[in-house]
């Protein structure tokens, strides 16, 4: 039995296979190390940007994500070619064969190619970056990752949505420019509109001073809706990108307290304009 294993170990063909396997493992781990170093270097690049350079740091994050994805595709392809060469497979003939069958394969991978090119153009056109609040194809949320083939969005309910880049038709980016939003309150029809207007205008400078992401004082927008039992009054607010929802919430809460202090009665409406 021992002699059998000795012959097996010292057999030239077996030794050759073992060496090839070891070389293949080394090539694979070298590839992993190269990918890690490259990704780490790009990640460190993001950290060099100043905290207030928000858009640029977001763009660099997107470049890191998509560049890492491209690098993995390229390196793993090279690794496969090298490993096949180690095992004496004629890679040139394989590539030639692939060229002959390329037309057939193209029909099967055209969606993949479309996704890859779309990913590149998303980055070049600066349509959106990691961290942006967007609505893509009717799905709203925050961009978590941009890869060569897909974009990952975390919905505001916590769900993760993965959209192939080639299928993206409509993009609304809420994070590129300063945003205007509107907060509304419903009051009884006999409300003193001028008094409400004065409360809002007097309170606005105080609110802007308290919340630094508010670009300018909230503005009394006027009566936007009148019904049998109520009138709806709107207040416009301008915020820095990606802060509009928080500022809407803050303004609603602050005005709620202010109206309570001034004994201004207001109403809460449910679906169907039912007064509560």
UniProtKB/TrEMBL annotation:
Spans through the membrane: 17-39, 60-87, 93-113
Membrane topology label: Multi-pass membrane protein
GO molecular function terms noted in the UniProt entry: mechanosensitive monoatomic ion channel activity
Subcellular localization: Cell membrane
Domain Mechanosensitive ion channel transmembrane helices 2/3: start-end pairs: 70-110
Gene3D superfamilies: 1.10.287.1260, 2.30.30.60, 3.30.70.100
Segments forming domain Mechanosensitive ion channel MscS: 112-176
Keyword vocabulary terms for this entry: Cell membrane, Membrane, Transmembrane, Transmembrane helix
A matching Pfam family: MS_channel_2nd
Matches recorded under InterPro entries: LSM_dom_sf, MS_channel_1st, MscS_beta-dom_sf, MscS_channel_2nd, MscS_channel_C_sf, MscS_channel_TM-2, YbiO_bact
Source domain of life: Bacteria
A single GO cellular-component term on record: plasma membrane
Family classification: Belongs to the MscS (TC 1.A.23) family.
Name used for this protein in its record: Transporter, small conductance mechanosensitive ion channel MscS family protein
Organism listed in the record: Parvimonas micra ATCC 33270
